[in-house]
Amino acid sequence: MSMFQEQTITCKDCSKSFVFTNEQARTFEEKGYKNLPLRCEDCRKEKASSMRRRRFGRGAPRSKPYRKPLPPPSDLNTNGTTKYNAGKVAFAGKSFGFIDYKDGQLYFDRETFDGDQSKLLSGLYVDFTVTKDENDRLCAKTVTPATSVPPEVLAADKAKAEAEKTEDDSRPARRPARKCPEGGRSAGRGAAPRRRGASGAAGEKKESTPAAERPERNMINIVVERPGKGDSVTVQKPDTGATFTVFRRILYHAFNKDLSRAFKLYHNDELMTYESFNQLKEGDKLSIKEEPEEERK
Predict the structure, then answer these.
(1) Structure pTM?
(2) Which of 39, 147, 233, 256 fits as disulfide partner to 43, beta carbons 3.0 to 4.6 Å?
(3) Domain-by-domain residue ranges, the chain?
């Protein structure tokens, strides 16, 4: 025996009663649903539309669900059409559009509009006749600009606009974007932290010491000779804080680039290292050992 049976349920939102039929109960059971519906069909559609707007953001365009038009009244004219006054154009595209009227929403072909096509825009009130096409679907046969708009139609539109405005105001405001710190770029999600300057504040540059205030360094003379070539040069280096790589580059240019890039320096027949380089004194002599000519490339 099925757990679902036909019964009358009160809608959670509008408090109206609706019938939960046996066919709907069978569909719920096939889909594996364990609970009865809480809302009527109209409130379920409105709830789904609200969830879509919340998901895609406040600025996302609202997509109104298509409302299937009801059949025309029984008092049809002799030609099978029914005339309506003051419908409102909900959408007007390049070749078709939709009209909101008291019985729902109706499709119309743009060619059926009798008037200035440039004025056929969303929000225009029109008079139109309803008929059925070859597929037995409702559509507008003729569309003309409305000659007059009944007061009840204007009142309904005003109430609808106020309800939508109240709904917009009730939504929580979006979180304001974080401002970029002055003088720096914005640190987005996943961005590396900005380096801090001398004062510790992000984005501030560390002030460099002027050259006039820097302590002077004593320079010492170093004699470098090539035993195999018989030539030598005298170069200067700071007594402290010198860089071995820069010193090698100075030697390379001092010998007019007539050196192998992989030359080695010796002091007292011992290979020069970074530690021994900073221990040199005034007048020390260095010797250069180069690679064989055939290995220079």
Answers:
(1) 0.32
(2) 39
(3) 8-56, 82-165, 219-295
Q: Are 194 and 180 in contact (CB under 8 A)?
A: no
Put residue 266 in one of left, alpha, beta given phi > 0 → left and psi -120 to 50 → alpha: beta
Alpha helices in the chain (DSSP H): 22-31, 41-56, 151-170, 244-254, 274-277
Q: What CATH number was assigned to the domain covering residues 82-165? A: 2.40.50.140
Residue given tokens 């035993």 in the structure block = 227
Residue at 254: amino acid letter: A
Q: What is the pLDDT of residues 226-241, one digit of tens each?
A: 877 778 888 888 877 7
Classify domain 219-295 at the CATH class level.
alpha beta
Domains 82-165 and 219-295 share a fold: no
Residue whose tokens read 């507008």? 140
| Burial class of residue 288, CB neighbours in 10 A (0-12, 13-18, 19+) | buried
Q: What is the DSSP letter of 217?
A: -
Please tell me the distance from the alpha carbon of residue 82 to that of residue 153, in angstroms, as a whole number: 18
